[in-house]
Amino acid sequence: MADVAAGVASETTPEESVRLLMMGIFDAIQAHPWVGAQLAREPWQTALLEIFFEICSRLQVLGVAEGELFDAASTLLSYLLGVASQYAAGVSLSRHTDRAAFLSAAVEDWLDRRESSDHPFVRQVTRLADHDDRDQFIAGVEVILDGVMTRSR
After folding, report:
1. 20 to 30 A from 23, CA-CA: which of 75, 84, 96, 132?
2. Would you tell me how many other CB atoms lie within 10 Å of the CB of residue 142?
3. What domains can you pick out in the chain, each with its CATH number?
4. DSSP letters along the chain, please?
5. In 3D, which of 56, 53, 83, 85 has the Cα closest to residue 143?
6. What is the per-residue pLDDT across 68-107, written as a single tens digit (0 to 9) for each?
């Protein structure tokens, strides 16, 4: 994790620095799926505190108000660990089945078991079958950063 933080170039914008840190940790966890579950299981360990402090320091440079720092960093860290754990489970599953086929079957099941009038949203999320986990992760980071910056203004 220290290598990820050190690898974020100092000439990036503060917002890009947060984004690159989150993506670097995401990629490290994807390369070693057990890491996300391990980090979430023991929140007092040094590696997790270092990630939290790295996020905080970047948010501070970004201009996040002191009163918002803890909540903003906690939200990003929780999102990171939650998504990493979820995707780690997917990696485990994909060893036993074709990911695209599994996700396509899940979407079909959703569509078959739910009345469109009761759950119109289900018809709109069919891209689950062919989504890119990394793209979806960074979209979530962007949503969180937009909210953090809105609250800090």
Report:
1. 96
2. 13
3. 14-96+132-152 (1.10.357.10)
4. -HHHHHTS-TTS-HHHHHHHHHHHHHHHHHHSTHHHHHHHH-TTSHHHHHHHHHHHHHHHHHT--HHHHHHHHHHHHHHHHHHHHHHHHHHHHHTTS-HHHHHHHHHHHHHHHS-TTT-GGGGG-GGGGG--HHHHHHHHHHHHHHHHHHHH-
5. 83
6. 999 999 999 999 988 877 877 666 666 667 777 777 777 7
